[in-house]
From TrEMBL:
<dbReference type="InterPro" id="IPR022271">
    <property type="entry name" value="Lipocalin_ApoD"/>
</dbReference>
<keyword id="KW-0998">Cell outer membrane</keyword>
<keyword id="KW-0449">Lipoprotein</keyword>
<dbReference type="InterPro" id="IPR002446">
    <property type="entry name" value="Lipocalin_bac"/>
</dbReference>
<dbReference type="InterPro" id="IPR000566">
    <property type="entry name" value="Lipocln_cytosolic_FA-bd_dom"/>
</dbReference>
<keyword id="KW-0446">Lipid-binding</keyword>
<comment type="function">
    <text>Involved in the storage or transport of lipids necessary for membrane maintenance under stressful conditions. Displays a binding preference for lysophospholipids.</text>
</comment>
<dbReference type="Pfam" id="PF08212">
    <property type="entry name" value="Lipocalin_2"/>
</dbReference>
<comment type="similarity">
    <text>Belongs to the calycin superfamily. Lipocalin family.</text>
</comment>
<protein>
    <recommendedName>
        <fullName>Outer membrane lipoprotein Blc</fullName>
    </recommendedName>
</protein>
<feature type="domain" description="Lipocalin/cytosolic fatty-acid binding">
    <location>
        <begin position="33"/>
        <end position="169"/>
    </location>
</feature>
<dbReference type="InterPro" id="IPR022272">
    <property type="entry name" value="Lipocalin_CS"/>
</dbReference>
<keyword id="KW-0472">Membrane</keyword>
<dbReference type="InterPro" id="IPR012674">
    <property type="entry name" value="Calycin"/>
</dbReference>
<comment type="subunit">
    <text>Homodimer.</text>
</comment>
<dbReference type="InterPro" id="IPR047202">
    <property type="entry name" value="Lipocalin_Blc-like_dom"/>
</dbReference>
Length: 176
């Protein structure tokens, strides 16, 4: 058996903590994986370095042959005038709950927690990371009503998210 170098162990332990659930937030149950596949538009998010400055953000989920999910996140960087794309893979942490583990960097995974879902039509989802620093409002359409956005804000506040830095993602057409 190979041993893990001592200096690497703290990093491994820290990264493994990234696949947990935020305290007090429960993933949805009864998730139908096949219905969740397809394209989602990012309506709102708490900003973070890997999406900083991106607009027109989408996430596309497709089933891989091995049962994992191919994840392609795409957004437009107006400062550079070009599209940015990241490809990763996801696996379900629980069979029928909205808790996935997503990786864009080799063997390192982070939580993707669906804590609200339109279970009738699968038209919107509220997603958190492993803590309350990560939050997304996803929709099957690039625009939602103000009432839908306010419902998201209210639920996020109830769950303890700080929305001071919430970004509403621009999905307007690019100028020709």
């Amino acid at each position: 058996m190979k041993s893990i170098p001592v200096l690497t162990l703290p990093a491994v332990l820290l990264l493994s903590a990234c696949t947990g659930l935020p305290e007090g937030i429960d993933p949805v149950s009864g998730l139908e994986k096949e219905r969740y596949l397809g394209t989602w538009y990012e309506i709102a998010r708490l900003d973070h370095s890997f999406e900083e400055g991106l607009s027109r953000v989408t996430a596309d989920y497709r089933l891989n042959d091995d049962g994992t999910i191919k994840v392609v996140n795409r957004g437009y960087d107006s400062e550079d005038g070009e599209w940015s794309e990241a490809e990763g893979r996801a696996r379900f942490a629980d069979d029928d709950r909205g808790h996935l583990e997503v990786s864009f960097f080799g063997p390192f995974y982070s939580s993707y927690v669906i804590f609200e879902l339109d279970t009738e039509a699968y038209q919107f989802a509220y997603v958190s990371g492993y803590n309350r620093d990560y939050l997304w409002f996803l929709s099957r359409t690039p625009e939602v009503t103000e009432n839908e956005l306010e419902r998201f804000r209210n639920r996020a506040r109830e769950e303890g998210f700080d929305l001071d830095d919430l970004i509403i993602v621009d999905h307007s057409p690019l100028p020709q």
